[in-house]
Model the fold of this input.
Amino acid sequence: MNDTHMDVQVGDGSRDNDAAATQAHEFEVWSKKPEPEWTRYQEQRPYHTRGYVSKAPRVGDAAPDGPVARLDGTESTLLAEAAALVLSSSSSPTQNRVVALSFGSLTCPVWRAFAAQDTYRACGPEVPVLFVYTREAHASDDFPTPVNASGPMALTEGGPTQHRSLSARLDAARRATGLLEDQLGLLGESADETSSQRIHLVADALDDALEAAYEARPFRLYLVDLATRKVVFAAGLGPFNVAQKVNAIEATVAQLAGK
Done:
């Protein structure tokens, strides 16, 4: 993990953040802000808002499925893409049944700076990772953050606006693929289809159904056993406790591999 980044902690830092602690933390931070910031926050981070009852899949629950778009614009479904990825990956104790679903977007500074790559590496060679590009976490036209507008992490023109077409979402998803390619030193989507050393990324449909089903804003990672189509690991809400998320992923992967 890159030790130059700031990993915001919720709780005592001994474990990943749970929903109740996250909601209490965010209420303390955001409810004191002037309008329209507090109202906008509640609109953009419903899962983090005090009183919200999570409907996201827990360990043992069925993994939601739904439409996705590949980067070439062709249609598929999330679990079909996950299954294809597992089949194309080299054999290991957990492969041929377990896949990571890593949701995120470029406008989340934590995701693009370190969380995407740290959680990817935590899965190791045992578990292939399917990235799922979602609605923008901090679109410049609905929930901007100063980090995206200026400074060393600034995005061009403050980053993408919220996607109003599938082509706009796919453009952002391709940019994310390029970033991940650079960060992880892996081959991009132009690589041979059979290569296990590729970045595999699909985009959520424009209705954001998968983001909502997995309560994935601003980013989130799940491990799914495709033999049962059930969740075997669910990370806490982002963008907090990334180090603890990494530890929990690594421990789960090791357990699944029988280490």
